[in-house]
Amino acid sequence: MADTKLSVTMTKSKFGRLPRHQACLKGLGLRKINQTVEVLNTPENRGMINKISYMLKVEEV
User: Fold this and answer.
1) Distance between CA atoms of 40 and 7, rounded to whole angstroms?
2) Mean pLDDT over each residue of the chain, to the nearest integer
């Protein structure tokens, strides 16, 4: 499972969000709207993605 990667794109602004949700964006390495990063498919990253799924677009690479 950890050998696969996920392509994560931020689709909504971080401003006005809960501090924990902003921390999840930072943990995933996202700073700007429409920025895309590749992260490993680990339980830790999956948890952050699930928490802020309303502001992300996720694709398996």
Assistant:
1) 9
2) 96
